Amino acid sequence: MSVTVETLEKLERKITLTLPVGVIQSEVDARLKRMARTVKMDGFRPGKVPMTVVAQRYGYSVHYEVMNDKVGEAFANAANEAKLRVAGQPRISEKEGAPEGELTFDAIFEVFPDVKIADLSTAEIDKLTAEVNDGAIDKTLEILRKQRRTFAQRAQDAAAQDGDRVTVDFEGKIDGETFQGGKAEDFQFLVGDGQMLKEFEDAVRGMKAGESKTFPLAFPADYQGKEVAGKAADFMVTVKKIEAAHLPEVNDVLAKSLGIADATVEGLRADIRKNLEREVKFRLQARNKQAVMDALVAKAELDLPNSSVQAEVDRMVEGARADLKQRGIKDADKAPIPDDVFRPQAERRVRLGLVVAELVRSNELQAKPEQIKAHIEELAASYEKPAEVVRWYYGDNRRLAEVEAIVIENNVTEFVLAKAKINEKTVSFDELMGQN
């Protein structure tokens, strides 16, 4: 039977479905008979409930289920016969005036669009490169030393300086009243480490053990504690103890303590370089991938299925509510979050997803098993027991699917970069890693 597809607007289509009443009733009767074999009702033994009673009790719900199943089946068959790629769920409504013995339904739905991608050789993309130099290794070594530093109490007359760990009592007041979180005893922090506000650190720097000081402090307008943000406070601080930091020497002992196989300084630096180069590679891939995706969106022409966009918006709203709930917000699941907040981002995600899917399909850029395996092994290499990490990935289809998606995106990135006009730009290690 040929299927007539009516175009309503852009991606919206309509199909009329016809179902024989007899087919519906036959399936309803069959399901009620199967139900009668096991249904339990007061006053009857199991399997002995009369069909008339079963039909009276369950007939409506079974009829509703059968109608849904048969209409869904008819729609799937019609869409398949017409070779349609349906986006989202159809809106189905029963039509009046059907011929005797038949039921007719209108199914209105959207189809996925044809995606037109312009000549990628006309795309211009900035491709970033970066290197791991000795300075980056030195900085990482310094971080490792700080993570293993020890502290020794300074002399009584020594003044607190950057790098020292100080133990203080403090109390802050706003309009003469102590505020929540504004008072503490035996509180420790590292001077110059940015843990405290600048005014607080400036006040403590130069103080000696046993000294007290009062000073004003203005909380920034964007301070995380909303109850004091933008307000001025008066603080009193007493320094109780000052400890100087002692960092371990960069030697073979440090290398051994870090579990380096070649427990030498050279082995330690080589291990750091290998790990940094892996991190640089992943970060460059992410930055260059983003540039490629931006270029793809700019070079693609397509209509967006409203149903796909709305489904993405709904997912993002639910994600926002879950985040609010995790942060302890009361009634987060009922929080009024307007769709418009997420719609532009949802439209971009849907657009990009359709463009990437078309590029993958037309150029056979699917992830190959060996690519997935290589990516997992590269991820696992930075862990102490790589084999266990590999098993962890392969033990869950969802985790494997996430890796597969990343590999596909990498394939698309390499494909586009090979065709586009590339402007190579070198960035420093610190810029790439987001350091100052």
Task: Break the fold down into its secondary structure elements and pairings.
Layout: E1 5-9, E2 12-20, H1 21-36, H2 51-81, E3 86-94, E4 102-111, E5 116-117, E6 124-129, H3 134-147, E7 150-153, E8 165-174, E9 177-190, H4 198-204, E10 212-218, E11 232-246, H5 252-257, H6 265-299, E12 300-301, H7 306-326, H8 343-363, H9 369-380, H10 386-394, H11 397-419, E13 421-426, H12 429-433
Parallel strand pairs: 6-13
Antiparallel strand pairs: 1-2, 2-4, 3-4, 5-12, 7-11, 8-9, 8-11, 10-11
Description:
By secondary structure, the protein is of the alpha+beta class. It folds into 3 domains: 5-111, Alpha-Beta Plaits (2-Layer Sandwich), CATH 3.30.70.1050; 150-246, Chitinase A, domain 3 (Roll); 261-433, Trigger factor, domain 2, CATH 1.10.3120. It has helices at 21-36, 51-81, 134-147, 198-204, 252-257, 265-299, 306-326, 343-363, 369-380, 386-394, 397-419, 429-433, and strands at residues 5-9, 12-20, 86-94, 102-111, 116-117, 124-129, 150-153, 165-174, 177-190, 212-218, 232-246, 300-301, 421-426. A hairpin with a 2-residue loop joins β1 and β2. The protein starts with a strand and ends with a helix.
